[in-house]
Design brief:
alpha/beta; 5-stranded parallel β-sheet; 33% helix
């Protein structure tokens, strides 16, 4: 078996430059000067891209100023800031003492190498459960607002909207004054379905106008958007067009938190402000893909992919590997006689190439199948990588090294494979969907990602 080394790819990890407690943004609200990389990481990382390069198109601009209005101090705002200050202090203390502290008995405590810093993550999660409240704006009517797709390819968008709209979420604020964050309940999938069918044109202006007009109404009716210029507001979109919402008016959305499946750092995704949302193709009878996992010593396929030839990454993958190798099995859509998920369960390394956009449901499908994900992308900001160390339980191959896939994977020792496969099983809980949501599951992890970015803002 060949012995090779392969460098860290061009994936962008937010924890390298998402700063918790950033330097002063301006006189109206601040980003604190404490590094998330020092809080949520226990080891150093080597990146192919420099921090400055990764920040240049998006997040870096955030720290150069804002048009936010000065917050008028009141009892609610004071109590909120005091609570956030206590949360930051508790996280610091957990990191300093390397201890787990909680106000309640817990069934699960994060431990192990899949976490950048399990003490920081645990304490942050505890503080979130204790303090984080989200107000859902009531304006707007379905189908464009307050509902989204619950099944199929874009379902994490609809599942999140339905969770917070159900009235059962522990994070739902009963009054906007008690909220730490504000949810803009627009569904990009539904807008595209109802405004772009039949497909007369694909101009993004229709989509942009709906969301911009909605925010204009909110900003005139309530004080909350204007006091922070949207820094404590967020929306959730799993559609490929989600990032396009903000391109027509960058100033309006400069501080807005976008929770996106299409988390492409080369196309304006700002890891310091935006959140990477996992893409899951939820079937109509369940809340996730089937789990047809086999034991690691009963997996006869080295690498596997099946799907459409969408985008330049897959075109390159098909060029070198489609139907050419028994060990690296790359196929177009499978015949009905073959079970896609059963094949994943028989595979050691599941190939997860980007399609038209960077995200792919195969990343989560691999995790469900107990198959080590092989991320083939150059600019994908992986979900929850503020707290999860993907380098421990996945393999990353740059697009330029697609011809070397077999050499790279055969160069991984059995000991190293078994280690990563075991960690894939450990990380599964963070990608499971439950309704109602449960601590540390996928929906809680999305809330936690937004919580971290809210924790990063202080009104003054």
């Amino acid at each position: 078996m060949a012995s090779v080394s392969f460098p860290t790819p061009f994936l962008v990890y937010p924890s390298v430059f998402l700063l918790l407690f950033f330097s002063c943004l301006n006189s109206h609200f601040d980003f604190f000067s404490f590094s998330l990389s020092s809080i949520f990481s226990t080891h150093n990382q080597t990146l192919v891209r420099s921090t400055d390069e990764a920040l240049s198109s998006g997040a870096k601009d955030l720290f150069n100023g804002s048009t936010a209005s000065r917050v008028q101090k009141n009892g609610h705002a004071n109590r909120a800031e005091e609570g956030l200050a206590k949360a930051r202090g508790a996280i610091r203390e957990a990191v300093r003492t390397r201890s787990y502290m909680s106000y309640k008995d817990e069934r699960f405590v994060p431990r192990g190498s899949i976490y950048r810093n399990p003490y920081a993550f645990h304490q942050s999660h505890v503080e979130m459960e204790k303090r984080f409240k989200v107000w859902v704006y009531k304006e707007g009517e379905p189908p464009l607002f307050h509902a989204g797709p619950m099944k199929d390819i874009y379902s994490t968008e609809g599942q999140f909207i339905d969770e917070i709209e159900s009235g059962k979420s522990v994070f739902l604020a009963r009054h906007p004054d008690e909220a730490l964050a504000f949810f803009v309940p627009v569904s990009v999938v539904r807008i595209i379905k109802y405004l772009y069918e039949p497909h007369v044109d694909y101009h993004r202006g229709h989509l942009q106008n709906v969301v911009t007009d909605y925010i204009d109404i909110l900003s005139k009716k309530y004080k909350y958007w204007n006091r922070s210029s949207g820094a404590d507001h967020f929306f959730v979109s799993c559609h490929d067009w989600g990032p396009d919402v903000s391109t027509a008016n960058p100033t309006l959305y400069k501080n807005f938190i976008r929770v996106l499946c299409n988390a492409n750092a080369s196309e304006g995704f700002r890891p310091a402000r935006d959140v990477s949302l996992p893409e899951i193709k939820i079937p109509y009878k369940d809340l996730g893909p089937p789990r047809l996992s086999r034991a690691p010593n009963n997996r006869s396929i080295l690498a596997f992919f099946a799907g459409g030839c969408h985008g330049h990454v897959r075109e390159r993958l098909f060029q070198y590997w489609k139907d050419k190798d028994q060990d690296v099995q790359v196929h177009d859509y499978l015949p009905k006689s073959l079970n896609y998920f059963e094949l994943m369960g028989r595979t050691k390394f599941c190939l997860c190439p980007s399609g038209y956009e960077v995200a792919s449901p195969r990343v989560v499908e691999s995790i469900y199948a107990g198959c080590v994900p092989v991320i083939i992308s150059d600019s994908y900001v992986l979900p929850f990588s503020d707290v999860l160390d993907w380098s421990e339980f996945s393999i990353h191959i740059p697009v330029a090294r697609i011809p070397e896939i077999k050499v790279i994977l055969e160069g991984i020792s059995m000991t190293e494979y078994l280690k990563r496969q075991k960690l894939v099983l450990q990380v599964q809980r963070h990608f499971m969907v439950h309704r109602p949501a449960q601590p540390y599951d996928l929906l809680y992890m999305v809330f936690h990602s937004v919580w971290l970015r809210r924790l990063n803002v202080k009104f003054s």
